[in-house]
Amino acid sequence: MGTASVEFRNVSKSYGDQTVVSNISLELPADLTTALVGESGSGKSTILQIINGLVVPDAGQVLVLGQPLNYQQIARVRRSMAYAVQGAGLFPHMTVRENVTLMAKLESWHQSEIEKRYRYLLDLLELTHEFSDRYPHSLSGGQQQRVSLCRAMMLNPSLMLLDEPFSALDPITRATIHNEFLRLQTAESRSILLVTHDMDEAIKLAHNLIILKEGEVVQQGSVVEVKNRPVDEYVRRLFVPEGPEDA
What we know:
The protein is α/β, with parallel strands linked by helices. It has helices at residues 44-52, 74-78, 96-106, 111-124, 141-153, 171-187, 199-205, 223-228, 233-238, and strands at 4-15, 18-29, 33-37, 59-64, 67-68, 81-85, 159-163, 191-196, 208-213, 216-222. Helix 3 (96-106) packs across helix 4 and helix 3 (96-106) runs parallel beside helix 5 (141-153). It is globular, with a radius of gyration of 18 Å.
């Protein structure tokens, strides 16, 4: 395995007497997609927020791109990572072009660089350029999520954090976005952490799995390894399709 893009060493986080993340150690292989899978309340989003610096752990060490995460200089670290969430999270008062190019302007990119990258990303996600002057409210859910992915990729980050970005989409739109996401992985190599509660989505989009339960890592490894050698009944059942409910 190559260098880990993110590494947790005995990381814990509690709120009052509630432990959200309990002594977790994990690795995200570089330049691959890892899916973080677990039920609601298992600690998935907290792990993402710890990596992004929104939450500071109570104990343990976090390494991002080989360096200990410095929460006092988190703004600098965030330039190397992107963060996309469920519901797109676009600025409603900004056009598509303004949303996507905002960070590049803040980073003082040359206008020609911004325009080249912007056009490349729109083409990659099959958004026609007539969308440029439209506002988020006039876009469908799938279009908003494509714009959100464009914005997240604008600075060509080494690490992308995705917090259930596709869960609000209808099944047909989600299937289309999934295929575009797979194309993105091929077009640009980067480390991606995808938080999802949908095992089918994880299997389709990720190379590696981390299974969480009640704030602890139950199993981690390649999709094939975890599927073929589940460590316990809980993991095994995650791969069993749900049958129709009893009448």
